[in-house]
């Protein structure tokens, strides 16, 4: 088993939480994991990118080469396109469809959506609206994780267990909100 993942978006959108949950699930499966430092401005509003590599064999480098990412999980559609050169030919993009307009010359969102829609393996969701509609407004990132679950190659239940461990200290309400968000995203896989 080997899965190379690029996580990207804008600071404050929950990229590090996604990485923590995936990492916890992988380590509980006794898989090897390497994560590159977060690149970019991890403060609210700056672009953020991280490499996460999971394997059943030892991993030499924490960086994913161009054309080597099995999955790009993006909290923001323009960021998904930014890392497209890193996507493997059969790789998956799982992205939010809602832009985070933090620059004055943000590209036309309809063009971005058309470019993403022309790719082979894409799941594009309005995670912000889904989170609001389902009463989990702070868990949009976990909805995206649920949509990415099959592409990650980690069993759904293992990700659920990781959420319980990662958020357990924050209380049952936070755990249950994130389990619900994961389930919402899982429905989008179909």
Please tally the helical runs, counting DSSP H or I stretches of 4 or more residues.
7
- Average pLDDT number: 92
What would the principal axes of the Cα set say about the shape? globular
Largest sheet features: 7 strands, mixed
Helical amount: 40-55%
Oligomer: single chain
Rg from alpha-carbon coordinates: 15 Å
> Care to count the β-strands?
7
Structural class: alpha/beta
Estimate what percentage of residues fall within beta strands: 15-25%
Q: SSE string, helix = H, strand = E?
A: EHEEEEHEHEHHHH
Residue windows where pLDDT falls under 50 for at least 5 positions: none
Task: Give the distance, in angstroms, between the N- and C-terminal Cα atoms.
Answer: 23 Å
How is this structure best described in words?
The protein is of the alpha/beta class and 190 residues long. Helix content is 41%, strand content 23%. It is built from seven helices and seven strands; from the N terminus they run E-H-E-E-E-E-H-E-H-E-H-H-H-H. The protein has helices at 15-28, 77-82, 109-117, 127-133, 140-152, 156-167, 172-187; strands at 2-10, 32-35, 39-40, 47-55, 69-74, 87-96, 122-125. Strands 1, 2, 3, 4, 5, 6 and 7 form a seven-stranded mixed beta sheet that branches. Strand 6 (87-96), helix 3 and strand 7 (122-125) form a beta-alpha-beta unit. It is globular and about 40 Å long. The model has no long low-confidence stretch (mean pLDDT 92).
Task: Describe the secondary-structure layout.
Elements: E1 2-10, H1 15-28, E2 32-35, E3 39-40, E4 47-55, E5 69-74, H2 77-82, E6 87-96, H3 109-117, E7 122-125, H4 127-133, H5 140-152, H6 156-167, H7 172-187
Parallel strand pairs: 1-5, 5-6, 6-7
Antiparallel strand pairs: 1-4, 2-4, 3-4
């Amino acid at each position: 088993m080997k899965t190379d993942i690029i996580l990207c978006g804008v600071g404050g959108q929950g990229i590090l939480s996604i990485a923590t949950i995936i990492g916890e699930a992988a380590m509980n499966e006794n898989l090897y994991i390497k994560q590159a430092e977060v690149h970019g401005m991890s403060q609210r509003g700056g672009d953020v990118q991280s490499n996460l590599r999971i394997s059943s064999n030892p991993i030499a480098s924490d960086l994913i080469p161009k054309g080597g990412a099995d999955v790009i999980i993006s909290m923001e559609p323009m960021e998904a396109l930014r890392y497209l050169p890193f996507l493997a030919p059969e790789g998956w993009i799982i992205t939010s469809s809602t832009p985070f307009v933090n620059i004055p010359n943000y590209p036309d969102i309809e063009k971005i959506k058309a470019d993403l829609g022309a790719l082979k393996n894409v799941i594009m969701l309005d995670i912000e609206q889904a989170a609001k509609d389902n009463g989990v407004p702070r868990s949009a990132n976990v909805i995206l994780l649920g949509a990415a679950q099959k592409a990650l190659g980690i069993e759904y239940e293992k990700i659920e267990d990781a959420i319980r461990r990662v958020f357990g200290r924050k209380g049952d309400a936070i755990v249950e909100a994130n389990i619900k968000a994961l389930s919402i995203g899982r429905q989008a896989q179909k």
